[in-house]
Amino acid sequence: MIIGSKLHYFDEIDSTNDYARKIVDESTDGTVVLADVQTAGKGRLDNKWYSPDGGLYLSVILVTDKPLLVPILAAVAICETFSHYDIILGIKWPNDILLNGKKIAGILCEAVDMKVILGIGINLNINEFPLELRNTATSIFLETKKRFDKMMIYNELCSELENYYNMLRADRVRDILQQWRNYTIMFGKTVAIETPEKVITGRVIDIGGNGSLILVLPDGRIEKVLAGECRIIKENK
Ligand code: BT5
Description:
The protein is an alpha+beta fold. It has helices at 16-23, 70-83, 140-144, 150-169, 173-183, and strands spanning 7-13, 32-38, 56-63, 90-92, 96-99, 102-112, 115-122, 190-194, 199-207, 213-216, 222-225, 229-234.
C-alpha cells in the first residue's frame, strides 16, 4: 500500500494542503497529511473550507504526470468509500461531492512540479454549519443520523484511493472515467461554466479523457471545458 504508508498526523493545523506543500520536496509518493481540525482550511481560489472537529481533512502527495485526472479519481474513491455503507453520493464537476443535493465533500488539487497535492475534506460527523453554509452544505451525520468512526473511513478512503491511483498508473483511465460516469449527477443538465475568458453555457453529455466536461452548446457545437466554476442552471434532461 502506497497511500498513507507515511502519515503526518495533527490534531490541529492551519491547512493540510499548506503543510503538504512545505514537505513536498522530501516526501515520497502516497505521503498523507491528516488533521482533526483545520484553522485555515482552503478551497479553490480564495475560498475557505469550514473544518471543525468531526470532519475528515487530509492531503495526499502523489507523483503523477496526469494531474488533471487526480480530482476525477479522488471523487470516485470518495463515492466508492461511502457506497460500502449504502450511502450514494453524487459527483458534481469539477470537485464537489453531494448528498441529497448539498455539498458533503470537496477536493482541492494543487500541482507542484511533478507532484500533486490532493486535498480532501469530508463533512463526516459535523452537527451544524454556519448560517452562510446551511443551505448548500451538509454532513454524513446530518443526512443519515449515523456517526462513523473517522479512522475507519480514513482507512477505507486510502484503500479506494490506492485502487484508483493504481488504475491511473496502469493507464486504465477508461475504467476510472466509467466509474465517474456512474456517480456523476451532471448528465443532461444545462450548466454555465465560468472560465477566465468567458462563460460557456451548454448541456452536459460526457467527460473527456483528460477530465474535461463535454457540452453541447445551444448552436449544436460540442465544447470540452477543462476547468471553471460550474453552475447548474437547468436540471431536466
Ligand atoms: C473545495 O473548494 O470544495 C475544496 C475543499 C478542499 C478542502 C480540503 S480539506 C483538506 C485539504 N486542506 C485544505 O486546506 N483544503 C483541502 P471550492 O470548490 O472552492 O469550495 C469552497 C466553497 O464551499 C466555499 O466558498 C463555501 O461556499 C463552501 N464550503 C466551505 N466549507 C464547506 C464545508 N465544510 N462543506 C461544504 N461546503 C463548504
